[in-house]
Model the fold of this input.
Amino acid sequence: MDARRGNRGENRPSRGSPVSGAGLAGIGAQFALTILVFVYAGIWLDRRLGTSPWLLLTCVFLGAGGGIYSMYRRMTASQRDAKHKQS
Done:
């Protein structure tokens, strides 16, 4: 380690590192936010179109599906990167 440069960023996980506790919290927050956005969109559409509760229910399932798909992609990418890093 160079004393002039310090320890800047050496212990920070890189973008492709396995998901840490903070990363998992971020994934959970993204999942919840996705569902909330779709819930509000469903409520707004139901009020505009008078289709209550059908668009709300549809949007909740679309939001949950999108959130699960996003979590799946992030976790598989993390595992793939960790495997390549070990090799």
Observations:
- Helices lie at 21-49, 54-86.
